[in-house]
Amino acid sequence: MAEPLLQAQIDINAPVAKVWSLVADLSKMPQWSPQCRLMKTLGGPLRQGSRTVNLNRRRFLVWPTTSRITEFIPEKKLAFRVNQNGTVWSYELEPTATGTRVIESRHAENGVSAFSNMSVNALMGGVPSFERELVDGMNESLSRIKAAAES
């Protein structure tokens, strides 16, 4: 059974506007995420309701997904629902005394689709280990965003 919430956060010594410009450019997602190889927005500029096509890779496995932007609040929050498993991934930004705090989350309050759980159990070593890997990936993504924003 999937955990309802996976989360990581980081403090970045850069202004919110600079961090947002990195997070909200979904074409850069492969630079941040160790699993994402492509994230392309369809049909014009990114906004709530936009659709994306994505390509993910984990070792020898490669799989496509699609998603829809569920929240787009400039310099505050970007969230998208993955159509194949029903999870919602989000990036929330808040100003701090020294820059920006970014919280990356994967919400699965309604669980994850049975097919997705079956696939993860069969191909990725089970849900608990895959979810630990996802949190490790979130921390890696946030570290890469921090390095880019602070450079």
From TrEMBL:
InterPro entries: Polyketide_cyclase/dehydratase, START-like_dom_sf. This is Polyketide cyclase. It comes from Mycolicibacterium rhodesiae (strain NBB3). The lineage of its organism: Bacteria, Bacillati, Actinomycetota, Actinomycetes, Mycobacteriales.
